[in-house]
């Protein structure tokens, strides 16, 4: 009789994924993720440990298209992404990207999320969501994919 090991809880898996990055990048990712969890307590966090990056998206459902904001963790930096950022007001001109939909901000440190201009963008993204976040309740973390092949994380 074989006993398969139960998978680790999502929180432990995410901690492991983040821990594989350079300590400075991991610090920014950990603190930015915590700030978003606190800012969006009812959001479903979708985690993709892809070939190029670790992505943690926050939205109202388990569908990627309902993502409001996400963090993308790369070997050398972390970005805060706005899934429908092209449609958001950006009076301070802090969003980067030129695609039809996504815009992002490169996070040089975790404290950047406390800036008024970034908080205003997050609030606008929440208000713009096609499927609003639940008003109450506690969100969950869902590991959506783990790529077998990944580029080095450091």
DSSP summary: helix tally: 3
Radius of gyration: 16 Å
Please give the largest β-sheet: 6 strands, mixed
Strand coverage percent: 15-25%
Structural class: alpha+beta
> What letter string, H or E per element, gives the SSE order?
HHEEEEEHE
The first-to-last residue Cα distance is: 40 Å
Helix content: 25-40%
- The stretches of 5 or more residues where confidence is low (pLDDT under 50) are none
Number of domains: 1
Overall pLDDT level: 90
Number of strands: 6
Outline, from the CA principal axes? globular
Q: What is the topology, as strand order, of the major beta sheet?
A: 5-4-3-2-1-6
How does the SSE layout of this entry go?
Layout: H1 10-19, H2 23-39, E1 44-49, E2 54-59, E3 67-73, E4 78-82, E5 103-107, H3 116-128, E6 141-146
Parallel strand pairs: 1-6
Antiparallel strand pairs: 1-2, 2-3, 3-4, 4-5
Q: Could you write a compact summary of the structure shown?
A:
26% of the residues lie in helices and 23% in strands.
Overview of this protein structure:
- This protein is α+β, with helices and mostly antiparallel strands.
- It has one domain.
- It has helices spanning 10-19, 23-39, 116-128; strands at 44-49, 54-59, 67-73, 78-82, 103-107, 141-146.
- Strands 5-4-3-2-1-6 form a six-stranded mixed beta sheet.
- The protein is globular and about 45 Å long.
- The mean pLDDT is 90.
